[in-house]
């Protein structure tokens, strides 16, 4: 049985907790969730999770520490976890942008993860026990035994593991994830004041509008963290837009 600490009990963190709890080989799962509303929602759900409202209050060691917190908080949590817990634990995060990791000296037992799954919803009330199954997770290559251990952890949740370097990760996801969300945000804002009946939205418009309505605070942090790659992709997009716009004449 593994002891697992989830730092952040929002949509992703609580979905991960549920997925781990559903496995046949049971784990001891602890969750750190400082938000009182989220903590209350988790407490009201039937589970054996151990709940904390502050990382400082956790007094035991773990096999895995998974940080599911906002990007701006991650570097500080990594350093705190490395100082508090045994170096035998694998520390990872699940952020979709990784530039913030360059701001600190990463501990040897840290390997970054990016599960390619999620939702436009936020909060533990929308958690999905099947969110991770049959999806892909990207690991930032580290050439350490910790990466192999973390790879097996994600594979136990029926995820396919791909390992790439940090720069490639942020360039690729700047193009295939962050830029589409950026464009969708602009599309949604362009409709402000149009007062269109929601029943009239075609599938394509509905999907773009859904992306544009995703958690604004979360995506603002991603846009800021991976701004360089998003800007590079946006420049190419604007060139393509100018070219295809000629078809409207």
Automatic annotation (TrEMBL):
Q: Which residues form the signal peptide?
A: none
Q: Report which superkingdom the organism of origin falls in.
A: Bacteria
* Gene3D superfamilies membership: 6-phosphogluconate dehydrogenase C-terminal like domain, NAD(P)-binding Rossmann-like Domain
Q: Which InterPro entries match?
A: 6-PGluconate_DH-like_C_sf (IPR008927), NAD(P)-bd_dom_sf (IPR036291), PDH_C (IPR046825), PDH_N (IPR046826), Preph/Arog_dehydrog (IPR050812), Prephen_DH (IPR003099)
Keywords assigned by UniProt, alphabetized: Oxidoreductase
Q: Which residues form a coiled coil?
A: none
Q: Which SUPFAM superfamilies match?
A: 6-phosphogluconate dehydrogenase C-terminal domain-like, NAD(P)-binding Rossmann-fold domains
Database matches in Pfam families: PDH_C, PDH_N
Q: Which PANTHER family match?
A: PREPHENATE DEHYDROGENASE, PREPHENATE DEHYDROGENASE [NADP(+)]
- Tell me the protein's name: Prephenate dehydrogenase
